[in-house]
Design goal:
Its EC number is 6.3.5.4. InterPro entries: Asn_synthase, ASN_synthetase/amidase, Ntn_hydrolases_N, Rossmann-like_a/b/a_fold. It catalyses: L-aspartate + L-glutamine + ATP + H2O = L-asparagine + L-glutamate + AMP + diphosphate + H(+). This is asparagine synthase (glutamine-hydrolyzing). It holds the Pfam family Asn_synthase. By secondary structure, the chain is of the alpha+beta class. The protein folds into four domains: 179 residues, Glutamine Phosphoribosylpyrophosphate, subunit 1, domain 1 (4-Layer Sandwich), CATH 3.60.20.10; 196 residues, HUPs (Rossmann fold); 80 residues, no CATH class; 68 residues, no CATH class. The protein has 23 helices and 18 strands. A hairpin with a 6-residue loop joins strand 7 and strand 8. The mean pLDDT is 92.
């Protein structure tokens, strides 16, 4: 999906492939052939992507609906509709251009606003192809390295600003961002969902997003991807599955994937990926707002894309399930339970103890500390300064979802998981090259799950307990009770050991070092050791190598 909106169009610099044009009262929106577009020129309004109202796909607007979207600055759209979309319109009263991004974060929305006009796009490479220069924003890059997992308006590209999920940006002399949809509002909604509510919402949402297209499910045999397999079977969709197999047991999930495929009489392809297929020095395939971990995941991207392209299928992923289904492994739910019911939080204390393996006394002490920290410093995000120069740490740019309302610790921790989920899907290159659906991050699913109290997710000492119970009748018993997760260590660690010398040279003589971001002595020392000596350090080196390759790609962009 690719689009571009230019407030002051110039056809001489229009990127190739954006052959469809839509008038927008002085501005023009362009889209490629694969991007669904709803156009209401009288409003004037353009929506790029899939849009639904309740259980129906929207293919057009009434004049009243289009006017309501424009006059409410997108609030009507996010209150009455959902989907995978970015909306752009012109305000009749002020003449200002506006853009809104749906709460799922499935489609990126970014802009550059200057005195010469505003450009809104789905990816930086589109703006680069339109002749706009790309330069590294050192502070934005430092923020990404110090605070991984959280997006902010500031990006690592100078002059490019991200519209965050659930926001409307209003462009004028100084662009202003408005949080139209927030998790806090969803949490405050009345009514406690039931297991039936969750199951019906996931099944229905998945079916609508798939929209009768042939599907390839990325099936690990874990809870989340297995739920999606059940949803497709329920809707009688045309689907088959593929699972990735790595050399070690940590990434070999064939046993569980086969159980799920057999339960649904589905075809399963098992695709092996070896360490020699992982090129950790591979430059990014295209320009992105921030470093994304491309080199570590490129082999998986190629494998799944090849499999989907064999018979022209969209990709369906359970990514985001951990995040939406409240996979919390802290004492935060104990604090929430104590606030809600006092002494009866004992049950949650016991559940967290069973889930984490920590003693009851340790969990109780952790809960007390958690409550105190939350009261004194409610907005926190763990910084990672490993292998970075201490003086390069920028202030944390708090996300509006964490700052706009009073929240309990478990609620805030759940929202932080959602932010990490958005960050993960932004890293998946195959989602940029082929339609890829993430049903668990869809607005109806998020809104329902946010209303479930945090202690329900850890009930019985099980992670994602509410979801497990909601889908129990649709899962093979070993999958329902599974506690392990697939890892990539047996794939990445040997690749790191083989390419360690090149990675050291790449980083010590690269752009990040030149910008003063890297602690070179610490990095040189860390690169002397093989991956098995410290798993945290070698993965950090891989993150920094990816950032270095990204920075070099920006420097070499036309």
């Amino acid at each position: 999906m690719r689009f571009l909106v230019l407030d002051r169009p110039n056809d001489d610099t229009l990127p190739a492939g954006l052959e469809r044009a839509f008038a927008l009262d002085g501005a023009i929106g362009y889209a490629d052939a694969d991007t669904p577009v709803l156009h209401a020129p009288a409003a004037p309004l353009i929506i790029f992507g899939q849009l639904f109202r309740a259980n129906e796909r929207k293919h057009e607007f009434t004049s009243g609906e289009a006017d309501a979207i424009v006059t409410s600055r997108g609030a009507w759209l996010m209150r009455h509709c959902w989907g995978r979309y970015v909306a752009v319109w012109r305000e009749p009263a002020t003449g200002r251009l506006c853009a809104a991004r749906d709460p799922s974060g499935a489609i990126l929305a970014l802009y550059r606003s200057e005195s010469s006009g505003t450009a809104i796009a789905s990816e930086p490479s589109t703006l680069a192809d339109a002749g706009m220069p790309m330069r590294i924003d050192t502070t934005g890059l430092a923020h990404r390295l110090w605070y991984p997992g959280i997006a902010s308006h500031q990006t690592a590209l100078d002059g490019l600003v991200e519209i965050l999920p659930g926001e409307t940006a209003v462009f004028g002399p100084a662009p202003v961002h408005h949080s139209i949809w927030t998790p806090a509002a969803a949490i405050a909604s009345a009514g406690l969902p039931t297991h039936d509510n969750l199951r019906e919402t996931v099944f229905q949402t998945t079916n609508l997003l798939v929209d009768n297209r042939p599907v390839l499910v990325e099936l690990s045999g874990g809870l989340d991807s297995s739920i999606l397999a059940a949803a497709l079977t329920e809707s009688r969709a045309d689907w088959r599955a593929a699972t990735i197999v790595t050399p070690g047991k940590d990434g070999d999930e064939r046993h569980y994937a086969r159980l799920v495929a057999t339960a649904h009489a589905a075809r399963l392809e098992e695709r092996h990926v070896a360490p020699d297929a992982v090129d950790l020095l591979m430059p990014p395939a295209r320009l992105t707002l921030r470093p994304t971990g491309y080199g570590m995941l490129a082999a998986l991207d190629r494998t799944m894309l090849t499999e989907a392209e064999r018979d022209d299928r969209i990709l369906l992923s359970g990514t985001g399930g951990d995040n939406v289904f409240g996979s919390l492994r802290s004492a935060a739910p104990v604090v929430d339970a104590a606030i809600a019911s006092g002494a009866s939080c004992w049950h949650t204390l016991r559940d967290v103890s069973r889930l984490t393996g920590a003693s009851l006394s340790k969990v109780a002490l952790s809960a007390a500390r958690y409550a105190l920290r939350h009261r004194l410093h409610p907005i926190r995000w763990r910084a990672d300064g490993s292998l970075l120069m201490p003086g390069t740490r920028p202030p944390l740019a708090p996300h509006p979802w964490l700052t706009k309302a009073r929240l309990q610790p478990g609620q805030r921790a759940h929202i932080a998981l959602l932010l990490r989920g958005h960050d993960v899907i932004a890293d998946i290159e195959r989602a940029r090259r082929r339609t890829m659906i993430f049903p668990f991050l869809a607005q109806p699913v998020i809104e329902l799950c946010l209303r479930i109290p945090s202690w329900e997710w850890v009930a019985g000492g099980r992670d994602r307990a509410f979801a497990r119970d909601a889908f129990r009748g649709h899962l093979p018993a070993p999958v329902y009770s599974r506690r392990t997760k697939g890892r990539l260590a047996s794939l990445l660690a040997p690749a790191f050991d083989d390419q360690r010398a090149q990675l050291r040279a790449l980083l010590c003589e690269g752009v990040l070092a030149e910008l003063g971001l890297l602690d070179r002595p610490a990095l040189e020392a860390a690169c002397r050791y093989e991956a098995g000596s410290d798993g945290r350090i070698y993965t950090r080196i891989l993150e920094l190598a990816d950032a270095e390759l990204w920075a070099r790609a920006v420097r070499s962009a036309p």
